[in-house]
Design a protein that fits this description.
With 324 residues, the chain is an alpha/beta fold. Helix content is 48%, strand content 14%. Bound molecules: zinc ion.
Length: 324
């Protein structure tokens, strides 16, 4: 009996491996075949198909393109972009798009090669961070001086990503440029108000209590923009794990400074945050889990947190409530 089960499992795996192999062929094949762009006059008569990686970028495309675009995001709520591996279906969504927008700066660590192939094929594919002045980007010493990809945490930096998408839509569909330009003006105004909201709310937390501890180092821009000290258990990519010493060092700091709460991220497993909580308790300080933050993925569609503005507001409100 046991033997039979083993055989069945073996067949299952080998079949899966064959399928994965096939997907690999499809991945490299479609992505590198030469692309003939649709001419603007034809594109002006139908909706533009936009494919993005994370939901935050999809949200920009919807706000700038509104009725002119069909937007597909590859990564939904709770999905971690650092670890995301594209499926053959994803490649289809990318290679049927009129334009592709992704984060860049190695946010989508396992898709870098794929984007390179797609770009070489001539299909319009843009990193939304491409036009940001490098001086405004955080440099990560532990990642060989690469730049921190989590730019959406500073609303004013994310406004640069909005401008990039606007710019590329104008190139693709110049006939509707007035429409896009009006939409982008409205959206940038809403984002400016969001930035002020975050600044005012977070300033209401006493300076000594203004310490944000999260699972992975995504909130660096947030800390710099809104004057809050940021500490993380893992590095800026979830691909590297935190060691036992990292957990103990952080626990020591949190207990010594009597920090009230640490936070869980919707796209990162809770285990590391709970390990820190346990280690802080062992040092005689009761620290709470301050609630769930949306870091690298937005909330569910149809909820306020399913939009970029709602996600930022949610994070600000959860942080203020837990630390004030
Ligand atoms: Zn991240």
């Amino acid at each position: 009996m046991k033997n039979n089960i083993l055989v069945v499992k073996k067949q299952h795996w080998s079949r899966r491996q064959v399928l994965m192999g096939l997907a690999g062929v499809v991945l490299s094949g479609c992505a590198s075949s030469l692309y003939t762009p649709t001419d603007p006059a034809t594109l002006a008569k139908r909706k533009i198909n936009v494919t993005t990686t994370v939901g935050m970028i999809a949200d920009i495309a919807k706000n700038v393109g509104r009725d002119r675009v069909n937007v597909t995001a590859l990564m939904g709520p709770g999905v971690d972009p650092h670890l995301y591996k594209p499926s053959a279906r994803d490649v289809n969504k990318l290679t049927s798009a009129d334009v592709i927008f992704y984060g860049g700066l190695h946010l989508e660590g396992r898709m870098v090669d794929l984007f390179e192939k797609i770009s070489k094929s001539g299909r319009p594919a843009f990193a939304v961070t491409a036009d940001i002045d490098p001086q405004r980007l955080r440099t990560l010493e532990e990642e060989n001086d690469e730049h921190d990809p989590h730019v959406w945490f500073d609303v004013t930096l994310w406004m640069e990503a909005v401008k990039k998408i606007h710019k590329e839509l104008l190139v693709l569909d110049p006939e509707h440029s007035a429409y896009y330009t009006q939409n982008v003006a409205d959206y940038l105004q809403a984002l400016a108000a969001l930035h002020e909201y975050a600044k005012t709310q977070l300033a209401s937390i006493p300076k000594a209590a203004r310490v944000l501890v999260t699972a992975h180092d995504a909130f660096g821009y947030f800390g710099a923009a809104y004057d809050i000290e940021v500490k993380a258990i893992q590095g800026s990519s979830t691909a590297t794990e935190a060691g036992a010493k990292d957990v103990q060092d952080l626990a020591k700091y949190l207990a010594a400074n009597q920090i009230k709460a640490i936070f869980v991220e919707s796209s990162v497993p809770q285990a590391t945050v709970e390990a820190v909580q346990k280690a802080v308790r062992a040092r005689g300080w009761e620290i709470a889990l301050g609630g769930e933050l949306f870091s690298d993925a937005m909330g569910d569609d149809g909820t306020p947190e399913g939009t970029y503005i709602g996600m930022v507001k949610h994070n600000v409100d959860v942080i203020v409530k837990a630390l004030k």
